Amino acid sequence: MIDANLTNFETEVVDASHQLPVLVDLWAPWCGPCRVLGPVLEKLETAYAGRFKLVKVNTEDEPDLAAAFGVRSIPMVVLMKGGQPVDGFVGALPEGQIRQFLDKHVPEAAADEEAPSEEAAPADDASRLEQLQQQLAANPADDATRDAYVELLLRAGREDDARRAFEPLAGKVAIDRRAAALQVWLDALQSLRAAPDESALRAAIAANKRDFAARFALAQRLLAAQQWTAAMDELLEILMRDKGWNDDAARKAYVAILELITPPAPKTADGQPPATDPTLESYRRRLSMIVLS
Fold this sequence. Notes:
The protein is of the alpha/beta class. It has three domains: 2-103, Glutaredoxin; 123-172, no CATH class; 198-265 and 273-292, Tetratricopeptide repeat domain (Serine Threonine Protein Phosphatase 5, Tetratricopeptide repeat). It has 13 helices and five strands. The protein has helices spanning 9-15, 32-47, 63-68, 95-103, 123-138, 143-155, 159-166, 177-191, 198-207, 212-224, 228-241, 245-260, 278-292; strands at residues 2-3, 22-27, 53-58, 76-81, 84-90. Strands 1-3-2-4-5 form a five-stranded mixed sheet, sandwiched between helices. Helix 6 (143-155) packs parallel to helix 8. The longest helix has 16 residues, at 32-47. The radius of gyration is 20 Å and the shape is globular. The chain starts with a strand and ends with a helix. The model is unreliable at 111-121 (pLDDT under 50).
């Protein structure tokens, strides 16, 4: 992993991308999802054993590079080949989806190299899933544990298992905020079965910025891919133009994402709550400004 700046960008990114794919991670120290994504990318650089190169760009220190990539929200990841950007994504995707993204572009592993498993969850996630499953077996009525179990299944890409585990919560979404947020996530995944692809949705929005149905479908697609901030950016575009559109659908989805990306907040050793994530606070403020306007 290399930190890029204006001085070394040409060598470390543009020139290097003629030899092998270069993955550029555009991040900032205040960005909570960036802190989640960064270690995953570093882990994958090691796992792929030289089949791609990881370069990080601190957008706070390198605003000119951020502008050159057209950064609107972070984390943003761009894959460079032959001196040009060829693909990318926004948001802290789960490891399995990043592997799928990489496998479209990086050279195949040598025959004697162990191929990474796209289905395998990180060891700590697998252990946590087993622990939650055991707790639910002992106490099936523990809704908080069930919320956490369903969420972890979704983050691991196990949609069918998550739907089965969610069934006892379906009637409680009016009183359980986490369950309500999980329902929105499940609905977004369901919507992918009939929704146009991302390029078609973006083309529709470019033709008509008030095509709220297309913008909401794009937000659902981004939500389903766990690109949280990108999804909220699209929902904000709807809310700024029509706060109550489609029976408050955009606001409800936005609130659900805020719930999903808000971690439990245990108090620190001195009894005080931990510092809040600036990204979360920024998106909360934006929603409040629109709702109260």
